Amino acid sequence: MPVKVESIDPRLSLVKNQQLAQQNIELTRQNEQRKLVTQVIPAQSALEIAQNQLNTEVPELDSYLSDGYLIQETQGNIGLAIGNFVRMRGGHNPRVSERPTRSMLQRLAKNLEDSDPTSVGELRHRIGGVTKVEEIDDLLNSFQRHHLDTAECILLLASMLNEKENDQSSSHVLKQTLEKVMAGDNEWVLKLFTHLECGAVTPQALGELRFLYQQATSNQPELLYWFKQFSQFEGSQQQLRTLIRTLSFELSAGYKATDIRLAAVITDLKWLLQFLTIEVQSKHLANSLDLPNITDKHVTCLLLEIVQQSWLYSDWLESKISLQTSEKQYKYARGLMELIKLLPDDCFSDYDQREMVISVFIEYLQQLNELE
Prior knowledge:
mainly alpha; 17 helices; elongated
């Protein structure tokens, strides 16, 4: 179990903080050595590696993300995907629904109605009295006349399937209609969670999400490059939530369920959650400084710029962090150092680079203290 690294407290003396910083560096080194020991033993598969990553790294994000539901939903979907895949690979017949996607959509619609009864009710109101149908085309034509998009059609159909008064004939029509809607749009999962997270979106916003989705599902050579791509878009927290829910849903619904695919998507989700954590903490730091020229986007971009430096000097930090008051400058520098500790290992060329960056921050904080 990794040893917890303590935070630097500005209320303590400089000497005490320096001692604490040195302890942190040593504890981080010990944690890194523990990871190396576990990596010496070869995993049985890519899936096992991914499971280890999920169990050791993703839960730590709970401390930083206020949205516990997002993590629970993601981990639940990943757990379902891994469990089903392992059972199928072992020759067992898992007792799951023949149509896991449809069952998940019905559960999603029920959760949505429980938390916001007006959400699906508004869609029902838009289509008027179309509740009992005999033909698939009747439903599809009604949806088209009332200008329902793909996401709205899917939510409404899933909600209608949850009604207990459905007879066998009605249920069959609803199921077939849902299958037809999903088959007619290969981006329906992305559009569904875009609708749930962002509401109505413009074609440009959907295009940005499509680009980010492609980035998340492609094999990028460097995590740092991947993070930089995400940091360029406005409203990235909503976009990240959308992508996390899209990927985890696709994974648990069994799309492309191969050993390598499961491992790759779990890694994608881990990176998305980690980047969302950085975004949230950057926003907290920017808000605490309360300066018009320091935004959460500014903090995130500076953080990524710092870790791109092959070598770092306190003078360089001074040129980037210089603020109106020494108190806020110290607070900004300390906050950035804490964010450096949150960055995944893959953002650094090696362990020594992270240690070097933290050491320069400690030196810079000492200089600020001496100026007071």
